[in-house]
Design a protein that fits this description.
Layout lengths: L6 E4 L2 H10 L1 H4 L1 H6 E2 L9 E4 L18 E4 L1 H19 L5 E6 L3 H10 L6 E7 L12 E5 L8 E9 L3 H12 L4 E10 L2 H5 L5 E6 L4 E2 L15 E3 L10
Parallel strand pairs: 5-6, 5-8, 8-9, 9-10
Antiparallel strand pairs: 1-3, 2-3, 4-12, 6-7, 11-12
Helix pairs in contact: 4-5
Length: 243
């Protein structure tokens, strides 16, 4: 099936006789894939080593050319653990609900939830801010909400980056309509000066970063690069919307 020739090997007669008489090769799923034993013909005293498919390694996950690494995996994970300590001290034993914003915070929210000493429930809400490329298109759009109640609960929202504030504004209105006890915000990244400009004061921030388009660790460019372990800044030319 692979279009490759099998390799004929010679086995001692006693070994062939033993293998054929016991049916070992035919009954063993592993070895039966490796060898065949002809019953008759000129090759009846030989075994054939069958070629096996080669499974290529998946392509390495690289950032695009020109991307500059801002934060490596070790720095991100170290900060997440200190954030978990800060959050634990802040709530001091109070029950609270984690709400991660999809898709950007998928890695951050999961890692932070594991780093917390307590085991708060983790829910998700899906929001779209940039429908195409990296050009802001007005307000954020709430696409999907899980089946959970916010009423009279303390909520800690986990977001990937504080940028122009559209997501924060849209979700603040949404959460207020669901009557939680109170809502707190935790951003992994905050672009320098933008939160203050929008009048947004996060309760927790992992890193302050330049106002550049970022990829990696959940952040994407047209749905690519989310699974990079580090966080990179793109050159301005790469962060322009298509067309």
């Amino acid at each position: 099936k692979l279009g490759l020739p099998s390799v004929k090997i010679t086995l001692p007669g006693k070994v062939l006789l033993l293998l054929k008489s016991t049916g070992f090769l035919n009954g063993n799923p592993f070895f039966s894939k490796l060898f065949t034993l002809p019953a008759t013909g000129e090759d009846k005293d030989h075994a054939f080593l069958m070629p096996q498919p080669v499974h290529p390694s998946p392509p390495e996950n690289h950032p695009p050319d020109g991307a500059v690494r801002l934060l490596d995996e070790a720095a991100i994970q170290a900060r997440i653990h200190t954030l978990a300590e800060e959050i634990g001290s802040f709530f001091q034993g109070q029950e609270f609900l984690l709400v991660g914003i999809l898709k950007g915070s998928v890695h951050f929210a999961s890692d932070l939830a594991r780093a917390l000493q307590r085991d708060p429930p983790l829910e998700w809400i899906r929001v779209r801010t940039y429908p195409s490329g990296t050009s802001p298109q007005g307000d954020s759009e709430i696409l999907e909400v899980g089946n959970y109640s916010l009423q009279n609960r303390i909520v800690l929202v986990l977001d990937d980056v504080l940028d122009r504030g559209q997501t924060h504004q849209a979700l603040t209105r949404y959460f207020q309509s669901r009557q939680p006890a109170r809502v707190h915000w935790c951003f992994l990244l905050a672009k320098k000066g933008l939160g203050e400009k929008m009048g947004i004061q996060p309760d927790f921030t992992g890193f302050t970063v330049p106002d550049r388009w970022l990829i990696g660790y959940g952040l994407d460019l047209d749905e690519r690069y989310r699974n990079l372990r580090d966080i990179y800044a793109l050159p301005d030319a790469q962060a322009r919307p298509p067309g």
